[in-house]
Amino acid sequence: TYIGNVLVSVNPYKRLALYSSDLVRAYHCRGPYQLPPHIPEDDSLARRNIYAIAGSACRYLRDRNEDQCVVVSGESGAGKTEAARIVLQFIALASGQGREVKAMKERLVEAGSLLEAFGNAKTYRNDNSSRFSRVTNQAPGERNFHIFYQLLTGADIQLLSKSFEMLGFSQEDIVNVFKIVASVLKLGNISFIPTNNIDGTEGCTISNDYELYEVCELVGSDHSTLQEAMRSRTLEDGSELILADLSASEATHSRDSLCKALYSRLFTWLVNRINESIKAKRHGKRKVLGILDVYGFEMFERNGFEQFIINFCNEKLHQVVTESTLKEEQEEYAREGIEWTPIDFFSNSVVCDLIEKNHHGILSMLDEECLKSGFLSDEVFLSKLAQCCAGNSHCEVRHRGAGISDNNLPANCFRLKHYAGTVTYNVCGFVDKNNDILHRDLSQAMYRCRHPLLKVLFPEGNPKRSSLKRPATTGTQFKISISALVRNLSCKHQHYIRCIKPNELKQPRIFEMALVQHQVRYLGLLETVRIRRSGFCYRLQYQLFLSRYKMLSPRTWPTWHVAPVEGVSYLIRDLPIPSGEFAFGRTKLFVRSPRTVFELEEFRRVRLEDLAVLIQKLWRGYRQRKKFLLMKRSQTIIASAWRSWRAREEYRILKHRKQVEWAVGVIQRHYICWKRRQFLLRLSKQLSSECDSPIFRDWPPCHRRLTDTSVLIRRIHHKWRCHKYRLRFDQTARNRMREKVTASIIFKDRKTSYLRSVSHPFLGDYVRLRQNVQWKKACVETNDQYVVFADIINKIARSSGKVRIVFEKMSNFVPILFVLSTSSMLILDQRTLQIKYRVPATEIYRLSLSPYLDDVAVFHVRAPSPTREDLSGHQNAPGCLFQSDLGKKKGDFVFQTGHVIEIVTKLFLVVQNAMGKPPEVNISTEFETNFGQQTVMVAFKCMGLPEVQPGQIRISRKGNKMEILGFFLNVVQYQTSKREEVKYRSRSEEKYKHTKRKLFFKSRGPQILKNIQSSRIQENFVVETHILKNNILSILKWNLF
After folding, report:
1. What is the pLDDT averaged over residues 714-720?
2. What positions does the entry give for ATP binding (predicted)?
3. Domains in the chain and their CATH numbers?
């Protein structure tokens, strides 16, 4: 809750979900005293919130432009560090959202984590206490600084490295810091064994030298140098330097001093680096908001020099708070002539003077003992303290040989009555800890190390520095720091957070009434409440009050030229606030209730908004009037100048336009002629004789004005290239090209198997039938001397749909020799070359195929085709087999051949030449055929799974329907699988051709060989005849054996 500018906070000893960004906005956006220091959850429970005091400090900094400070006080374990972290969290969340501000907030949060790791430790009363001087000594049940455990266990070291990086530390800096921390741990492991020197003095040696080797490796030092610095020290006797050995106890003390110096200076260096990282980048003096979190008051069973220094800091801070909240406020009421009943309170100035007073204070006597030469003793210091503090009611001393004022006071101890209670201090180690001088030999050894930070941390070790001035003692340094802190606090507007510890067990939901009452009593909260209840919460000088609130009265706004106190009186009369809420002092106006201050601020905010609207309105009107008058005056000048300029400009533009039009015409004509000439010259150079192929696509680019010309020239040039290409052809090549063009017209984009036939020439006579003597005799009878195509193909039976093809294990079918002449289509027995069917070309009216990759073709005929057996008893004229009435109608022919494209193309041309018009080419998946007296529907179907190889078929007939099944590919699929199919088809075709040749020449081999030997073959067929001859000889040998 609030006690003026003091907030009382009780440590719950557990995490509470009280602080969020919504609460930050609530306390940041509202005015002072508009919200209580808590946000009620229900009628019976209220949640205390530290955001209230943080929001008040931020608003004072923003509105009054004054330095602010939040002082967090309380004994150890009361939650001071956590309260300071919550204040810092509020400042981070309440700040702006710019990129620089966001980065600054992140650095502030990470700085807290880093300082907590290096500056906090576990104590008997607090698991995360802000401590110092714990590097070498810890009380039972307590721990050293967190960073040592984090470095050893590695649990939080990654988070700590992230904090280093956020604050601008490089990886090298982080490693260097961890090396120094590790070296402190290793130095603490070094042990010394006492030895006797030759001259009788005591020396020492290191028992675990390997630890020293590891320290040297970490800091980059020479082993002998560091070992010598730890075992001896250099003394100055006049102009001579004497090297004296250290005893085991002296070396241990020197080692501890080095550890404390390393860690202390490293911590100071880290604080300076963090301050450099989080300080404002802009130059100039800026108002600040500080957060002070000091050590908590400590009172243990055994209290030493550390507890004495910590409690002295708390004593001074309590003195500042007491004088600010109790003493100065009552003195101000008296100065201002305000009626006031003084309230008594305990002032700890006596205790502070007893500790820090010059020449007679405890710290002064301790420094006097430390600065003496020779043997230093804690007992001598205690005896001087007993003499100085004799008769002082706040200090009791007991030492050997002195009287005992309290039987409960142990020997070699003194007792101080602090504001928080009486504490007994044991003086053992006071002189050594206050002295804590690091030998110059160790400083020089650290400076000579190759570690980059040690030269910065130990500048006194530089051999070039000749200053041998003795450094200040620990107590003196601490007293100077406390004095600077008090001066800094006195020039800032202070806000206080008084932290209360509910129990000694550090457990939640335990409230020890006696302990809490004791803390409330020694913190002076009761006196503060009495003063706040009977006093005034707000005061301000008349001139400042009038300057801040003069806009609330029409008599004081906008200016007031009389005495400020009169203006304030008029201002108060015009406000709807009872006059009893105000009191007039000699120089200041006092406001009693916080609610009144809030109402004044709210009135001022509303009035400022109205004034802002008024100022905006007047400014806009003034700006528009000035703009209008300026535009009106400028209109006449601009209109006159515009008319004269426009006349001159029109004349100039007209003259220039005529010149430009003339120049444009000349330039265009010359430019177009030049571009034409350049284009033609470039064409003549780039289109060389090597580019005369009809399929050559490259063409030089041209200007956009020459596009039509380029297209025309390109078309003419293409025709010329085609003409030159055609001139190279002989009659045979021309015929083949004509057949290829016809095949393209018929099958392109209609049948899939056409694509694989493009690259293969149409040979026609695949079995060399023209050289056969028996054929020469037979063709004369039928007038079929000119063979267009001849090859062994498969004829599909009309009745069962079986393929008449012979394999090694299927000899029940007879292969068929298909011959196409210029006048008819013939089917011959391949062994005897006897004609089985002859169909005139004029009787073929339709050619039917499927669009798939199969090799099936159907030839539709008009007239019946009698078989050879039916003609045995009837003699007809050669070539007139269809004139017999005894012929039994067989119907259309169904063939399968790998040269289906070539056969259909050649038959198409033969029928066209015979009839004068082309036959009908039907490419479809279903069509009708005539088998004898029946009409059969032929259907091509693609199977889902490739039961056969792509391109092969399986034929079945059921009634009047014949189905041709196969795993067919369309054009796109064929192009995709063509590469994989090449090897398979090449092997199949080679085997198939070899089988056909074996079957053909098995019966006709001797006769063909005889005819070939007796024939006169042209020169270009010599090689092929030789190959054929060898094949026939091999077949004949196979038949013989």
Report:
1. 89
2. 74-81
3. 543-685 (3.30.70.1590), 732-977 (2.30.29.30)
76 labeled binding residue: yes
One-letter amino acid at 253 equals: H
Lowest pLDDT segment from 19-33, 531-545, 926-940 = 19-33
Q: Give the CA angle between residues 263, 269, 275 to the nearest 5°.
A: 135
Q: Are 32 and 598 in contact (CB under 8 A)?
A: yes
**Calpha distance 991→988 (Å, rounded):** 5
Residues 985-997 have pLDDT tens digits of 555 555 555 555 5
33: left (phi over 0), alpha (psi -120 to 50) or beta: left
How far, in Å, CA of 129 to CA of 139, rounded? 14
- What one-letter code names the amino acid at 972? V
The whole-angstrom separation of Cα 430 and Cα 368 is 12
Locate tokens 């010059």: which residue? 358
pLDDT value at residue 726: 82
Q: What is the largest CA-CA distance in the chain?
A: 168
Q: Are 389 and 395 in contact (CB under 8 A)?
A: yes
Q: Which residue has 């010259």 as its token pair?
A: 681
CA–CA separation, 304 vs 307, rounded Å?
6
| Secondary structure letter of residue 31 according to DSSP | P
Please list the alpha-helical segments (H only) found in 120-170: 146-153, 157-166
Distance from the Cα of residue 563 to its chain's centroid: 65
Closest CA to 9 of 512, 496, 513: 496
Yes or no: say if 34 and 598 are a contact pair by the CB < 8 Å rule: yes
Pairing of strands 413-418, 421-426: antiparallel
Are β-strands 46-48 and 38-40 bridged in parallel, bridged antiparallel, or unpaired? Answer: antiparallel
Q: Rounded CA gap, 875 and 399, in Å?
A: 161
Angle between helices 542-549 and 564-573 (to 10 degrees): 50
Q: Is 284 annotated as a binding residue?
A: no
Is 78 among the annotated ligand-binding positions?
Answer: yes
Q: What angle in degrees, to the nearest 10, is found between the helix axes of 171-188 and 146-153?
A: 100
Annotated binding residue 80: yes
* CA–CA dist 127, 113 (Å, integer): 15
In 404-487, which ranges are E strands?
Answer: 413-418, 421-426
Structure tokens at 573: 């009369």
In terms of DSSP bridges, do strands 844-849 and 920-923 run parallel, antiparallel, or are they unpaired? parallel
Q: Is residue 858 a contact partner of residue 927, using CB atoms and an 8 Å limit? A: yes
Question: Which 8-state DSSP code applies to residue 930?
Answer: E
Of 496, 119, 580, the C-alpha closest to 318 is 496
Helix axes 146-153, 157-166, angle to 10 degrees: 120
Residue 203 is assigned to a ligand binding site? no
pLDDT at 992: 55
**Tokens 């606030």, residue?**
577
CA distance 291 to 278: 14
pTM above 0.70, yes or no: no
Euclidean distance between CA atoms 911 and 841, whole angstroms: 5
Is 324 in contact with 111 (CB distance < 8 Å)? no
CA dihedral 122, 123, 127, 133 (to 10 degrees): -40
- CA distances from residue 361 to 189, 388, 628, 1038 in whole angstroms, order as listed: 38, 8, 79, 134
In the chain, helix, strand, coil percent, each to 5? Answer: 50, 15, 35
Please indicate if the annotation marks 889 as binding a ligand.
no
3-state secondary structure of 905: helix
Greatest mean pLDDT among 381-390, 586-595, 782-791 lies in: 782-791
In terms of Cα–Cα distance, which of 421, 476, 401 is closest to 303?
A: 421
Q: Cα 643 vs. chain centroid, distance in angstroms?
A: 63
**Which DSSP state fits 690?**
G
Task: List the beta bridge partners of residue 202.
Answer: 196
3-state class of 488 per DSSP? helix
Report how far residue 74's alpha carbon sits from residue 293's, in angstroms, rounded to the nearest whole number. 10
Q: What letters, b where the CB count within 10 A reaches 16 and e where it falls short, cover 563-576?
A: ebbebbbbbbeebe
